[in-house]
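Q: What structure does this chain adopt?
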Amino acid sequence: MTTASEIRRPANAADVDRNIAMLGYGLLFFAIFFAGAPALIAVAIAYARRRDVNCTVASHHRFQIYIFWVGFALTLLMALSGLAALLSIIGDLLGVVSQVRWNGWDTVQTTSLHVGRPFFIFATAAAGLGVVTGLWLMVTAGYGFIRLAYSHAIPQTAR
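A:
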């Protein structure tokens, strides 16, 4: 009876591992177009395969995990900024509604919605973080893909 350590890997296993890592970079690259779902698949593959491959490909899987978590943090900051902008505009709307409630319906035509500075700050932050997140995913995935295409490891990524 053979044990798992005695089973030999096929000769082209290194090519398969490299292609799977390239697929991970492709999924990370296209994650911005599909609301991040491909990034979840890429990081699941990277977590599952990172210990079963050679050192070069393992460094790329670690880099893919790093790309995912930085992108996730940026997306979380973007979502919080967007939520703050939304709450700011809701607060402004509630101010208009309370003014109409206390001053009567005849003030509706003279009342305008004043959007405050916090809305513009948070909305700009959300938009800026969205651009940064998209650039992060595309540039880092492209960088890793090119390094992997030339069979170069990613230097010193988080473990």
